[in-house]
Design brief:
Distance between the termini of chain A: 47 Å
Structural class of chain A: alpha/beta
Largest interface: A-B, 53 and 57 residues
Number of helices of chain A: 6
Number of domains of chain B: 2
CATH architecture of the largest domain in chain B: Orthogonal Bundle
CATH class of chain A: Alpha Beta
Strand content of chain B: 15-25%
Number of domains of chain A: 1
CATH architecture of chain A: 3-Layer(aba) Sandwich
Oligomer: heterodimer
Number of strands of chain B: 15
Amino acid sequence: MFRILKKSLKTGVVTGQHPKADAPREPASPEAVQKTKPFTRSLAIREVDTGSCNACEMEMNALANPVYDVERFGVHIAASPRHADALVVTGPVTVNMTRALKDVYEQTPDPKIVIALGDCAINCGMFKGSYAVTGPVERHVPVDVRIPGCPPRPAEILEALAELREGKKP
Amino acid sequence: MADAQTAISQLNEAFGNAIVGVSDLHGTPVLRLGVKDLPVVAHYIHTHPGLRGALSLLWAVDHRPREARYELCYLFTLSECRDWLLLCTDLQGDDRLFHSITPHIHAAKWYEREIRDMFGLIPQGHPDLRRLVRHEHWPKGTHPLKKDFRWDTVLEQAQGEYAFRRIEGEGVFEVPVGPIHAGIIESGHFRFSVAGEPIMQLEVHHFWKHRGVEKLFEQLRLTDAVPLAERVSGDTTIGHSLAYCQAVETLLGIHVPPRAHYLRSLFLELERLHNHLGDVGAICNDTAYVLAHAHCGRMKERILQLNDQLAGSRFLRGVICVGGVSLNLTDHQVAQVTAELDAIETDFSELERILFANASLTDRLETTGVLNERAAWDHAAIGVVGRASGMDRDIRRDRPFAAYEELQPKIALYRYGDVRARMRVRMDEIHESARLIRDIRARMPQGPALAEPSGAPKPGEWALSAVEGWRGEILYMVMAGEQGQIHRCKVRDPSFVNWPAIQWAVLGNIIPDFPLINKSFNLSYAGNDL
């Protein structure tokens, strides 16, 4: 017990100790910001992997670590599409995942937004044209927000989410 | 202790007539056999006490248009001497049948199903010929790795349903999980059969994320495919790109400069460190011990930020290239790395003391998800999973690459095969990686870190390469085509081998322990599905 406390005291607060996001990115569209309004700054996210290399998942997971601590902004990961406000989709949509993506979109109650995370979700990246890939996310479900990068850094994801929730005009 | 050469003479004595030819591929003996004789010889290699060959890789090549034949290759690692031994056989012309070795060598099961899906070659006598990679909605006769299949074909839709193995009886339930999971996890499907709490059967139904990686390789030139290798499994960027580059360097006759070897080892150990730190935390998190998860997440983040500072990529993308490394760290930067790692290791040691003192954590980890030595051997389990179950294999020691010949890593080995053993292997390897990186700094030679290609491979020439990534051994087989193109690239992530093993490890455990067991394996879905 004493050891645990000592460790925590020694470590101190690490939240926010990360480099600023500096990658150029398109600002969130006014429509997307408008669509996010009903969630009153909190966002329940369902993460859908449709064929990523798992680097995007690693960075989504990093959002939950004490350094980025995304929950302090009211963003959390929902365990069911029924509880989700937003779908975060990573990866080019593979032949085998196409139906699952459409299903999960149907299962998510309106209003909802779809965030395409990473280059593959936006334009299939390196996997464009492959027999096993049916196209980018927007070919199957409407996409509201695009966060480019291979993979995008957690700070960049954080910034994109902040912009959405606060409706800030850049 | 028999080495590969004595093994050859032993095989010559036993099967003299069956062996069509013996050759040598960059130091690995290659035995050419007739299709009919292969299963017997394979069985002998697998079971003979002096050889005990574990099946390491099984792949097929379509040699068209140059030659009208398919080739099947079986790579064995002899347990006694850890040498490789390769068996090859040909299917001439329109022949589509070969004899399955799965009835005798369990580890061949998924490989043979994969070959059937990708090439349309049929392993006769295979106990389970359901589709593996191709899901049921793929049209009949689609075999993507055949040379007459275009890489950008648009697949039509067919109907069909995967037939799961069923257990029926009073009180037996099926629990389907996935492909999309509750949490940030890759896509894959698990089908449990339970009676009450204990799991009676688990069937892993994967390949949802199949992106056609091996076919995409064939559209690229040998020197251009590193970015694709980096994206086979994002968390193993260095492991995969290094394994790919080594194979290409063998083909192109490139001698990588010593400094590049050391830097490659350094990057590989950095990758091992951040993944192992994340895994230790994630295992604790699945026992609801969130504090450890937070600390480990913080330490992992320190390494990722360090990577970003050094290479401009948190996963060290673009660092490994054919001929060496594109990032020649200065001595000052290497010193910066070791200083940061010293701090992280002290930090981690403090956390370890907290973890070991926690009885309720130990209670959850011990005897959970046991993969015993026999089952590990039968599945040819490798990497962290294998070493936690007494499989004493590590490519860094057995077939030294990069700078490991001089570095001589110590191998963490446990026998019990439970979640705790797998966590202990990771903990030991964290300390060992930190030590190795300090050692790398002390021994780092000066000089260039990139060499120019010096030759061009003939079409049909091929090379094998192995790297001990943080999950386990990553194997690449790269065959050159016309004018520097890739004719065939077989990618084998350790996950492909270890996924079937998890089906055994969970038996008798309760479903709430499955996430914990799965986390302790922490296999890649992307690297498995390709």
